[in-house]
Automatic annotation (TrEMBL):
<feature type="domain" description="Helicase ATP-binding">
    <location>
        <begin position="26"/>
        <end position="194"/>
    </location>
</feature>
<keyword id="KW-0547">Nucleotide-binding</keyword>
<dbReference type="Pfam" id="PF16124">
    <property type="entry name" value="RecQ_Zn_bind"/>
</dbReference>
<keyword id="KW-0347">Helicase</keyword>
<dbReference type="InterPro" id="IPR027417">
    <property type="entry name" value="P-loop_NTPase"/>
</dbReference>
<dbReference type="InterPro" id="IPR036388">
    <property type="entry name" value="WH-like_DNA-bd_sf"/>
</dbReference>
<feature type="domain" description="Helicase C-terminal">
    <location>
        <begin position="218"/>
        <end position="364"/>
    </location>
</feature>
<keyword id="KW-0378">Hydrolase</keyword>
<keyword id="KW-0479">Metal-binding</keyword>
<dbReference type="InterPro" id="IPR014001">
    <property type="entry name" value="Helicase_ATP-bd"/>
</dbReference>
<dbReference type="InterPro" id="IPR011545">
    <property type="entry name" value="DEAD/DEAH_box_helicase_dom"/>
</dbReference>
<protein>
    <recommendedName>
        <fullName>ATP-dependent DNA helicase RecQ</fullName>
        <ecNumber>5.6.2.4</ecNumber>
    </recommendedName>
</protein>
<dbReference type="InterPro" id="IPR004589">
    <property type="entry name" value="DNA_helicase_ATP-dep_RecQ"/>
</dbReference>
<dbReference type="InterPro" id="IPR001650">
    <property type="entry name" value="Helicase_C-like"/>
</dbReference>
<dbReference type="InterPro" id="IPR032284">
    <property type="entry name" value="RecQ_Zn-bd"/>
</dbReference>
<dbReference type="Pfam" id="PF00271">
    <property type="entry name" value="Helicase_C"/>
</dbReference>
<keyword id="KW-0067">ATP-binding</keyword>
Length: 633
């Protein structure tokens, strides 16, 4: 068995050996055991389900909330000659129908699927007919209401166990507390508890949490002193541009990144940073998930993250090559107060949640009793502005509406335009003869894409416009014409989040909202805020504080964080003070003010502290109540 998994690893991924814990996790899965794997960011989670899936007949279903990451993994698998597809919000019913059929009757080896798709009866029903060899649940902490990133759509995953009770589940996450670890296994109906956990310790990271009023200048000094590539996380889109401009003005090659940019612009910025054409990327937390750049030397937070889990994951994007790197959190009292206000705003009243639902239904002109299954592009900022709603409260209201089964909301992701012919080749030829204006476009599609009679293929309207020497608008009109005449099916591109109505519209006054759940979530979130405050306020060791939070209670001091370095520096100064006291008092006895004045290192407070310690230890004695002399041999 061991040789087989190693040969698959070498054949498809080119690696000679597994990383720590990967082989143990794979063997557990191959034995048919439900398994929870806790591997830190960059620990190689995907190999843990991809290798065992390749060893067995059938398909592996991978659940992930990160659509961009799903698309990247599908593309990477295809490059390795492995059949994989993804299903997520924004895809059409017919498109999903065909993709699911290919999973049942075709040679698809991996189906990546967003959790909100499990609200669909079509998806749940078709999975029953697939020959599934493994369920892989990525970002598994999202299923726990005790976790920092609870997502209501994950609660639908119990349907997987019902459809295939004998198929093992592999749940994967980079960070989870003990309570979340227990909750994940319970919610996924593990047959027996089975956890593989790598230590959360990152010995090469020197965590820093520095209280600083002038954060911009401190940030600049850190960037210039540490050198190399880095990420700076900020609170909002406006700050990404301001801080990138500040760095550029001070000679640091920098750029900004946020979810509001177009897909091509985001990809260009990310690529420039990955290739070290840009040293520093200034971003909101939309940046970094799934990016495996090994040589990041620093990650700076200019605002306090709202949980230690989030901070650990974002800070963990530094130093994946094992070399020294520095996660630095810069904060002040105003940041602490703002974080607490954000927390309070995250739990709107039931009346606000009901009114948000009412505005949503009106916004999309849904009649009472209608709208079930309707999926639409959704722009949160535009919606909040139109109805004069506070954005943070509105975001929270949407999450609670999703938790109670009224809507589902997916992340923003670029989905290219897609096209498929709905008639066979002979019917298409007859149409070309009868409708000559469509002929050049049809020929161009047939020359460019294979399988367009069987599958939806991604198309680029601008490329066809260039090839045929016509405008973009003309190509769109022709594609829409083919759909209108039922010759083809044309799905336009989108890069907006998708919102789906899961139930027929009801009067908002009759809308059921689980107030007990909201109360529990508020308590959990409050505890997470207090934990990040404790991390900031600890006087011991930053790494030790993080490890304690994740249940590693017997860790040692890291020796690398700001607190450990300060202690080392202090110990060095105190050792020098002791040495000077020894030399001075061995030469002659001195009164207190004479001794203090003659010491050349340390503050008066440090000098007195060392002198008191030496007196308590009997190394220094006081004669006549005022003369100090050296007693030790």
């Amino acid at each position: 068995m061991s040789a087989t998994i190693h040969s698959i690893l070498k054949q498809y991924w080119g690696y000679d050996a597994f990383r720590p814990l990967q082989e143990d996790i794979i063997q557990s899965v191959l034995q048919g055991r439900d398994t929870l794997a806790l591997l830190p960011t960059g620990g190689g989670k995907s190999i843990c389900f991809q290798v065992p899936a390749m060893m067995q007949e059938g398909i592996c279903i991978v659940v992930s909330p990160l659509i961009a990451l799903m698309k990247d993994q599908v593309e990477n698998l295809r490059k390795r000659g492995i059949e994989a597809i993804a299903i997520y919000s924004g895809m059409g019913y017919r498109e999903i129908d065909i993709a699911l059929d290919n999973c049942i009757f075709g040679k698809i080896k991996f189906l990546y699927i967003a959790p909100e798709r499990f609200y669909s009866e079509l998806v749940r029903e078709r999975i029953k007919y697939m020959k599934v060899n493994l369920f892989a649940i990525d970002e598994a902490h999202c299923i726990s209401q005790w976790g920092y990133d609870f997502r209501p759509s994950y609660l639908q995953l119990a349907a997987l166990r019902e459809a295939h009770p004998e198929v093992p589940i592999l749940a994967l996450t980079a960070s989870a507390t003990r309570r979340v670890v227990e909750d994940i296994q319970e919610r996924l109906n593990f047959k027996a508890k089975n956890v593989f956990s790598k230590s959360f310790a990152r010995p090469n990271l020197g965590y820093m949490a520095l209280e600083e009023e002038n954060k911009m200048n401190r940030m600049l000094r850190i960037v210039k002193k540490v050198g190399g590539s880095g990420v700076i996380y900020v609170r909002n889109r406006r700050e990404t541009q301001e801080i990138a401009r500040f760095l550029l003005n001070h000679g640091v090659p920098a750029d900004y990144y946020h979810a509001g940019l177009g897909i091509k612009e985001r990809e260009g910025k990310q690529q420039a940073w990955t290739n070290n054409q840009v040293r520093v990327i200034v971003a909101t937390n939309a940046f970094g998930m799934g990016i495996d750049k090994p040589d990041v030397r620093f990650v700076i937070h200019l605002d306090i993250p709202d949980s230690l889990e989030a901070y650990y994951q974002e800070a963990g994007r530094a130093g994946r090559d094992g070399k020294k790197a520095f996660p630095v959190l810069l904060y002040n009292q105003e940041d602490r107060e703002r974080l607490w206000k954000t927390y309070q705003d995250s739990f709107p009243s039931v009346t606000f949640i009901q009114q948000t639902y009412h505005h949503l239904a009106n916004h999309y002109q849904i009649a009472y009793g209608a709208g079930k299954g309707m999926s639409v592009d959704f722009d949160l900022v535009e919606f909040a502005r139109k109805y004069q709603l506070e954005v943070m409260q509105t975001m929270s209201a949407l999450k609670f509406l999703e938790r109670d089964g009224w809507i589902s909301v997916s992340e923003a992701v670029f989905i290219p335009s897609r096209f498929k012919f709905e008639v066979d080749f002979h019917e298409l030829y007859k149409f070309q003869v009868q409708a000559a204006k469509y002929d050049p476009l049809i020929k161009a599609i047939l020359r460019t894409y294979g399988g367009v009679f069987d599958f939806y293929v991604p198309i680029n309207e601008y490329e066809f416009a260039k090839k045929l020497g016509v405008s973009y608008e003309t190509i769109v009109q022709l594609l829409e014409g083919l759909e209108k005449q039922q010759i083809g099916s044309y799905l336009r591109s989108t890069d907006k989040p998708q919102l789906q109505f899961l139930q027929p519209r009801v009067d908002y006054k009759n809308l059921y909202i689980d107030t007990e759940f909201i109360r529990e979530r508020k308590q959990v979130k409050g505890e997470q805020i207090q934990a990040i405050y404790r991390f900031l306020d600890t006087k011991a060791c930053r790494s030790k504080a993080i490890l304690y939070y994740f249940g590693e209670e017997n860790s040692t001091y890291c020796g690398e964080c700001d607190l450990c370095l300060r202690r080392k520096h202090l110990a060095t100064i105190e050792a020098k003070i002791e040495q000077e006291i020894r030399v001075l008092l061995m030469e002659k006895s001195l009164e207190l003010h004479e001794l203090i004045d003659n010491l050349t290192v340390g503050s008066d407070e440090q000098k007195l502290k060392v002198l008191r310690t030496l007196t308590d230890e009997g190394k220094v004695a006081i004669q006549d109540g005022k003369q100090y002399h050296w007693m030790a041999n």
